[in-house]
Structure to design on (668 residues):
């Protein structure tokens, strides 16, 4: 490694650590901190680091690792269920964005090729930034998270044809056969990669795991993580899409979780380099000289992309609030737009001045994305509640209005039909308790409705939808969705519409318990602490704590809203003396034979405990086990006695039952 490159790395990590720490104190997201660090050390300003290419290589590795872990957390089955979001929503978003931005650019330039190229640049959003924020907030599987993910995947698929069309936009002749051949090769390599996920990679990983070498396992995972993107890039597919496919391959094996835990430390380190490299693109001097133009460009990008993202989401049948949230989340320019910009500048589609304007405004939209996504839940709820837009939402809901329960009462309303919702519905159906389900995934609603489930499409944050499910007549409301902001709004609305309803909420984090209870939730079940309760109860059981003591801890935690684990420390070695007592206690079995003198006597007449100190705690007779038999229990031949006591006492008891001492005791 060259000393200059090592020096650059030290400077990058040092400045990044200081900036991220300082901004963290101001509660500014770390992504912005890395970008600011890149601005400070970049070649256009202070110029501490000038080896931008080396930083970009590390940044590409960070993006690959991010998309790889996202792919591992997905699965082919889940991806197939999202095909509507990928093809339908993604297609509408890309085409509509190209059309809108192209039209605006044509009005400004009058040049068709350049105008369409501007649409290409604006059509892509930042896969790295959006995926990272969704993952950190636990919203990857939320309604807006699924829609965003589908559209981002489609955008990555579009990078290939968009790159191939750039020469045609610049006036060069492009062969249709070459274009079709390139797209065909890309489709073929994707099919090969996905096929290997089912028939090749699981077998390879199984053989690697059998060696019991952690080093070999990590090396193999990294090889797949970097090798598949490299292979796909040779066929014209973007590195990020190749990395996502590599993750999908691993997701089909039973080693997916271990792969994620091994890759995460590398991912977070390299991904920071990506955001630093984005900041290094900014030219502060140019920004100060063109503040007005950049501001107008940023506002135009946000305005049009929010609209296109919202319309694309609405075309999938998602609620208005979720659609607005999706539009806000995809409003930035993507990292792959920089690649298109470089190719466009080389083809004469961009002047140097427009290139700098594009870079400055694009990086500005990236920097503002964490703040936009943080405010998106409340902003989308406010926008969706505006008078005209609320009418639009109600009009769309009329399509789903038919079939809502009208006469049902004293029932349970289930919000969300994931694993928890399905299990609850199954139990309620068997116990004949009436219930109704609200779900925002139209495909799930259609599928389960055909199976006879009382499931309806609708957004639980809307009081109109809640009234259609009979919120004023319901006894219980169970909220089992993965959208924290929506959960809080649903609790508040439900309690306002029916103050007597009992609300049970499943949430992900314990930090949300207190706020949800203040809003009116009667019971809040945080996943992370229910898991911890199960773990610590089993740990304490292994240390042989009395069962009633363990149950007291569990009850205290749940009654106090889980605050006990935040304020009380459990003893390090509770009742350790009991372990010392039990380590000498053993159990043994004794068979009463046909000619045994024990047969026909009661336990009391044996005087076994008096003579030997051993207790009979069970009798196995036929197919039945008599636990803690009473003193008058009469023993018979063929019975198997379960004895408990110290080893020497058990040995003495067996000798006693078969010796003359027993005869003496018998006739006392």
């Amino acid at each position: 490694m060259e000393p200059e490159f090592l020096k650059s790395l030290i400077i990058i990590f040092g400045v990044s650590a200081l900036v991220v720490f300082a901004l963290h104190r101001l509660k500014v997201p770390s992504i912005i901190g890395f970008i600011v660090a890149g601005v400070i050390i970049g070649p256009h300003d202070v110029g501490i680091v000038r080896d931008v290419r080396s930083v970009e290589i590390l940044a590409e590795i960070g993006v690959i690792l991010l998309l790889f872990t996202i792919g591992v957390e997905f699965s082919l089955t889940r991806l197939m269920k999202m095909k509507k979001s990928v093809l339908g929503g993604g297609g509408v978003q890309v085409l509509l964005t190209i059309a809108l931005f192209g039209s605006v650019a044509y009005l400004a330039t009058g040049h068709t090729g350049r105008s369409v190229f501007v649409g290409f640049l604006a059509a892509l959003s930042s896969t790295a930034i959006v995926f990272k924020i969704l993952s950190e907030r636990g919203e990857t599987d939320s309604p807006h998270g699924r829609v965003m993910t589908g559209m981002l995947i489609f955008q990555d698929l579009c990078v290939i044809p968009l790159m191939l069309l750039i020469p045609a936009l610049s006036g060069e002749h492009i062969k249709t056969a070459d274009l079709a051949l390139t797209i065909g090769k890309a489709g073929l390599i994707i099919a090969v990669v996905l096929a290997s996920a089912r028939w090749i990679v699981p077998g390879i990983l199984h053989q690697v795991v059998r060696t019991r070498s952690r080093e070999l396992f990590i090396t193999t995972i990294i090889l797949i993580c970097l090798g598949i993107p490299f292979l796909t890039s040779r066929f014209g597919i973007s590195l990020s899409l190749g990395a996502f496919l590599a993750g999908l391959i691993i997701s089909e094996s039973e080693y997916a979780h271990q792969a994620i835990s091994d890759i995460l430390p590398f991912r977070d380190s390299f991904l920071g380099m990506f955001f630093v490299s984005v900041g290094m693109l900014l030219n502060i001097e140019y920004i100060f000289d063109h503040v007005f133009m950049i501001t107008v460009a940023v506002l135009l990008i946000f305005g049009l992309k929010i609209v296109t993202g919202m319309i694309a989401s609405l075309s999938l049948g998602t609620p208005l609030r979720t659609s607005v949230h999706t539009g806000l989340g995809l409003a930035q320019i993507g990292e792959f737009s920089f690649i298109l910009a470089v190719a466009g500048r080389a083809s004469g589609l961009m002047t140097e001045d427009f290139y700098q304007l594009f870079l400055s405004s694009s990086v500005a939209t990236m920097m503002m994305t964490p703040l936009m996504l943080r405010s998106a839940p409340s902003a989308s709820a406010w926008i969706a509640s505006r008078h005209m837009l609320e009418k639009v939402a109600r009009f769309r809901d009329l399509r789903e209005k038919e079939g809502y329960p009208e006469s049902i009462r004293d029932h349970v309303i289930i919000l969300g039909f994931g694993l928890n919702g399905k299990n609850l519905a199954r139990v309620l159906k068997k116990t004949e308790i009436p219930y109704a389900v609200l779900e925002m995934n139209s495909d799930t609603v259609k599928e389960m409705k055909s199976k006879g489930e009382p499931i309806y499409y609708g957004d639980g944050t809307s009081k109109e939808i809640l009234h259609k499910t009979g919120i004023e007549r319901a006894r219980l409301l169970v909220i089992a969705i993965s959208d924290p902001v929506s959960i809080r709004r649903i609790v508040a609305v439900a309690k306002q519409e029916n103050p007597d309803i009992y609300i049970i909420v499943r949430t992900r984090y314990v930090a949300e318990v207190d706020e949800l209870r203040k809003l009116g939730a009667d019971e809040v079940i945080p996943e992370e602490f229910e898991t911890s309760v199960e773990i610590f109860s089993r740990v304490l059981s292994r240390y042989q704590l009395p069962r009633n003591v363990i149950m007291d801890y569990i009850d205290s935690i749940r009654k106090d809203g889980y605050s006990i684990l935040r304020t009380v420390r459990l003893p390090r070695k509770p009742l350790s003396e009991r372990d010392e007592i039990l380590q000498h206690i053993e159990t043994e079995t004794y068979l009463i034979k046909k000619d045994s003198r024990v047969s026909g006597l009661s336990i009391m007449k044996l005087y076994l405990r008096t003579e030997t100190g051993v207790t009979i705690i069970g009798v196995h007779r036929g197919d039945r086990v008599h636990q803690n038999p009473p003193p008058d229990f009469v023993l018979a031949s063929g019975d198997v006695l379960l004895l408990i006591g110290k080893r020497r006492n058990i040995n003495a008891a067996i000798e006693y039952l078969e010796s003359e001492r027993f005869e003496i005791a018998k006739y006392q």
Remarks:
- The chain has four domains: 3-384, 401-521, 530-578, 584-666.
